[in-house]
What we know:
6-stranded parallel beta sheet, binds NADP nicotinamide-adenine-dinucleotide phosphate, 6-stranded mixed beta sheet, Rossmann fold
Amino acid sequence: MSASSSSGSPAPTVAVVGATGLVGETVLRVFEERGFPVGELRALGSARSAGTRVHFRGKEHAVEEATTERLRGADFVFFAATGELSRSMAPAAAAAGAVVIDKSSTWRMAAHVPLVVPEINPGALAPFGRTGGIVSCPNCTTIGLVMALEPLRRAAGLAHVTVTTLQAASGAGREGLDELRGQRSALFPRALAGNVIPQCERFQESGYTTEEQKLSDETRKILALPALPVTMTCVRVPVAVGHSAAVLVETEHPLSPEEALDALRAFPGLSVGSANEYTTPLELAGRDDVHRDDVHVGRVRRDPTHPRRLWLWTVVDNIRKGAATNAVQIAEELLARR
Ligand SMILES: NC(=O)c1ccc[n+]([C@@H]2O[C@H](COP(=O)([O-])OP(=O)(O)OC[C@H]3O[C@@H](n4cnc5c(N)ncnc54)[C@H](OP(=O)(O)O)[C@@H]3O)[C@@H](O)[C@H]2O)c1
């Protein structure tokens, strides 16, 4: 550690792997916005971006190629690169004492790795103390879903969840944005501009995509409800930033829309609208007068065909709360425990 944080303890040495990517650059912005203490910053990327520069707290930082050596001595390592890189480099960094906060899907379902949304299951971080280890950050779509489900679960239990997601191009990284803008092709299975594609990532034998599998597996792990029936279709839409979802929730006990709204409004990190109120991805990602790090929940209404079912509309900024902000919140939670 070096320099000093506001608590008087030395500010951590922080490495960001993938600092040139959409999520990594947003991690740096979120550090600035939230005043996260950073003693030394190591901005890392691939050999392609080595020598380029990123801006942080008024200074330029040279990007270096990510190597195991460059992670040595870091207190926090944020992995926002590829799953393969996390697989090959995260264990050594954790063994050397760093807390690794991984944005890829590599470690999410590993039994020994906590999968954390700090508003929901901060207790999963308990084993960390002062030692290193890997913490996994959920999929951006999962974070939007579980943030809306948890208050309803606490109020009335969950019996069944059906969800159709409408996912932005940036969920596939900078190349996804480029493809939406027509600057490249072939990342998505069909043309995205002016279209909707009912396939996010690749199909498995089950007929569900890997993205759909992640949404169901991760939701059950975070909520600690391993048998919760969660079924979904994930759709790519020609939106730059912001994953939306239409969610049909069946609760175990009766819950009126008014009671659901009360439960949602009392939960941190949510902006809540009633039956005819909603936020769109364009509003969430493009305006200063909305809470960009909140998950926005609206159109809360009863399913007229079933006494214990409610419909919701949710929107999450996939780059911020869906990725960077959640990762920084995990680090804040760990620092607060030290
Ligand atoms: N985008 C989202 O909405 C979202 C949400 C949740 C989780 N995630 C996850 O977050 C991670 C980053 O996503 P992103 O959207 O930021 O992607 P991105 O915009 O494509 O950025 C990828 C980053 O990874 C770096 N990288 C790639 N290969 C590397 C290598 N071999 N060694 C070192 N660095 C390497 C790139 O560096 P160069 O610039 O040098 O190529 C770049 O900084 C992924 O695991 C993704 O699944 C993304």
